[in-house]
Amino acid sequence: MITLDGLTKRYGGKTAVDDLTLELTPGTVTGFLGPNGAGKSTAMRVILGLDAPTCGTALIGGRRYADLDRPLRTVGALLDARAVHPARSGRDHLRAMALSQDISFSRVEEVLALTGMTDAARRRAGTYSLGMSQRLGIAGALLGDPQVLMLDEPVNGLDPDGVRWIRTLLRSLAAEGRTVFVSSHLMSEMERTADRLIVLGRGRLLADESMERLAAGAGVRVRGPRLLPLAGVLPAARWTGPEELTVTGHTSEQIGRRAHELGLVLYELRPVESSLEESYMRLTANSAEYGAQR
Amino acid sequence: MNALARAVSAEWLKLRSVRSTWWFAGGALLTMLLVAVLEAEDTAGFLRGQGRPVEPVSSVLEGVEWVQLVFGSFGMLAVTSEYATRGIVVTLACTPSRTRLLLAKTAVVGAAVFVAGGLTAVLGVAASAPLLQRYWEFDAGQVAGRILAMAAYMALVAALALGLGTLIRRSAGTVTVLFVLLYVLPLGLQGVAGSLDVELLVTVAGFTPGPAGERFMAGEPAFGLVLTAWAVAAVVAGVWVMRRRDA
Ligand SMILES: Nc1ncnc2c1ncn2[C@@H]1O[C@H](COP(=O)(O)OP(=O)(O)OP(=O)(O)O)[C@@H](O)[C@H]1O
Ligand SMILES: [Mg+2]
């Protein structure tokens, strides 16, 4: 549904997004990860036509965002929850959005109820807590019942209840066949929510993989008394102990069979689930621009 | 509803759903009444000896000189407040066409100021009546024409400010530029013209928004076109820049 082709965005000399090519498919929650300043928000801004790409294209169902007639009915986005006039009530904020898209005011009440904002809706948005602003932003994204949802750090500021609510919401939206694109820095949350992960570092694509593959990236642990021959036939094997190998790129079935062929005794053969966090750290080790000194 | 009508209705709701809009309306009215009454008292004192007739709108014309800044700030804020609060991100997501968005904003601001400005002028005339009535030659048609011209002038100043606000994006800078354009520029041009003895500059000064507005409100419709040209130029420049600039 969303197609980025060679998308590049430079601000002056600074390349925020660098030659990004990818396709986001319906029915999946795609997580968007990367260190601070990696270019996640910039990519989303370009998709929404807020910033013009330096080169490349960003299309939604084959069309530029600016060419959509009532865009909120196709793409619902939350980029910055605080980007609301503080003197306007949450309800009026949503009603203005609704008027611009020919959406009924009853739909406004629906999304207010869905986000738990009905009671706060008549208050000025400037009085909202971060979590309430976030909920109002999500209400705005859902307003047009869109096929594509794009949320920039939606759980930022939400209470545990809200975090879980977002998780089930995004899962059910994807289950309905929608395209869900969501950025976050919370690895454990992403691990539970996303089907597919896109990792960005300094504007470049570092990984675009399914959750299983990214989280399984650590490999298979093999333990036995004489593993040297096995290490010889599996170039991707690393010694991780005196009698222990860690093999990447092979399933435990393949490795077990290979060991049998070589007549080796094994004490242990076990896939090691690395957490997403570990995989992420490995991927982005060299691309964090604003990391703390270690 | 077509896209422009949708954008207009959204902008109208946005305008009336913030309290500051009503403060501006109240501020404009108060300013007008205060200036008009003071001016009327002055004129009445002056006329008492002479007995010459005076136009019913004379005191209100003086009020417009002040009220135009209030309405100008109001027009400017329709855009600059969006940049200050970053609400522009949501606005552009709803209405991606910069041309359509600024047309809608200009239409809403222009119409609102035309109505509010016209009402303000009517109330200014009413407030001056007790002091000046004796010296009036009241011609309803003429008074109505003058009030419409004043309303149009204030709406055009608001549109001009809206265009400037789009170009500059910040309130402080926009107010400064608006003030210079309305008050300082014509005086400066006349000053330079006087000291260098260049007659052309006096003519040029007459075509800046302030003096052109005075002549328009004094009953020279052609100067309405000059004002319209200023407002259109500012809004078109705003559209042009906004289309080329990241939000
Ligand atoms: N308007 C702008 N002008 C100049 N540089 C910008 C602008 N917007 C973003 N950048 C730069 O582009 C880079 C990418 O920023 P972006 O906000 O997209 O990162 P991000 O991945 O969303 O980071 P975070 O996780 O902190 O939200 C940063 O180096 C940032 O400083
Ligand atoms: Mg960001």
TrEMBL record, chain A:
<keyword id="KW-0067">ATP-binding</keyword>
<protein>
    <submittedName>
        <fullName>ABC transporter ATP-binding protein</fullName>
    </submittedName>
</protein>
<comment type="similarity">
    <text>Belongs to the ABC transporter superfamily.</text>
</comment>
<keyword id="KW-0813">Transport</keyword>
<feature type="domain" description="ABC transporter">
    <location>
        <begin position="2"/>
        <end position="227"/>
    </location>
</feature>
<dbReference type="Pfam" id="PF00005">
    <property type="entry name" value="ABC_tran"/>
</dbReference>
<dbReference type="InterPro" id="IPR027417">
    <property type="entry name" value="P-loop_NTPase"/>
</dbReference>
<dbReference type="InterPro" id="IPR003593">
    <property type="entry name" value="AAA+_ATPase"/>
</dbReference>
<dbReference type="InterPro" id="IPR017871">
    <property type="entry name" value="ABC_transporter-like_CS"/>
</dbReference>
<dbReference type="InterPro" id="IPR003439">
    <property type="entry name" value="ABC_transporter-like_ATP-bd"/>
</dbReference>
<dbReference type="GO" id="GO:0016887">
    <property type="term" value="F:ATP hydrolysis activity"/>
</dbReference>
<keyword id="KW-0547">Nucleotide-binding</keyword>
<dbReference type="GO" id="GO:0005524">
    <property type="term" value="F:ATP binding"/>
</dbReference>
Automatic annotation (TrEMBL), chain B:
<feature type="transmembrane region" description="Helical">
    <location>
        <begin position="222"/>
        <end position="242"/>
    </location>
</feature>
<feature type="transmembrane region" description="Helical">
    <location>
        <begin position="147"/>
        <end position="168"/>
    </location>
</feature>
<protein>
    <submittedName>
        <fullName>ABC transporter</fullName>
    </submittedName>
</protein>
<feature type="transmembrane region" description="Helical">
    <location>
        <begin position="21"/>
        <end position="38"/>
    </location>
</feature>
<feature type="transmembrane region" description="Helical">
    <location>
        <begin position="106"/>
        <end position="127"/>
    </location>
</feature>
<keyword id="KW-0472">Membrane</keyword>
<keyword id="KW-1133">Transmembrane helix</keyword>
<keyword id="KW-0812">Transmembrane</keyword>
<feature type="transmembrane region" description="Helical">
    <location>
        <begin position="66"/>
        <end position="85"/>
    </location>
</feature>
<feature type="transmembrane region" description="Helical">
    <location>
        <begin position="175"/>
        <end position="193"/>
    </location>
</feature>
